[in-house]
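subagent[fold] <- orchestrator: predict structure for attached chain, return tokens only, no commentary.
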Amino acid sequence: MRPIVSLFAAALLALAGAVSAPAQVVSPPRGSPQRTAILDAVRPMAEAELGKPVEFVVNEMRVLGEWAFVVLAPQRPGGGKIEYAYTRYQQAVDNDMFGGLVIALLRQTPKGWLVYQYDLGATDVVWLEWKQLYPVPPEVFPN
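subagent[fold] -> orchestrator:
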């Protein structure tokens, strides 16, 4: 009987360790389907403001479970510069009040990644408010 109890106790300890282990934030590698899907979810919003086509340089991509947080530098394909003269952001660019980055919070749904929050050009830490609006694990956001 003692070996059965020992096996049972070992199984419980292993299960407890697996349950209590915190999930890890990951950054999907370049070319991975998850990274591509996240970028493709954000792209239409950037293209609506900046014109097509837009590609991104990923400054930060943090994924934890169903949530993703990204900081992206928009550019034209091949590294071409975005001309803000044809956007509503030119005055902010002229006044040094434009950060130039896309910052977004996304959530994975059965139909794909959904953009919950999006900001282009922030010069502040816009995601501080997002932490309070959604049930996002705090690890998704940078410190």
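orchestrator: received. Logging for downstream: Residues 5-18 have pLDDT under 50 and may be disordered. The chain has one domain: 24-140.
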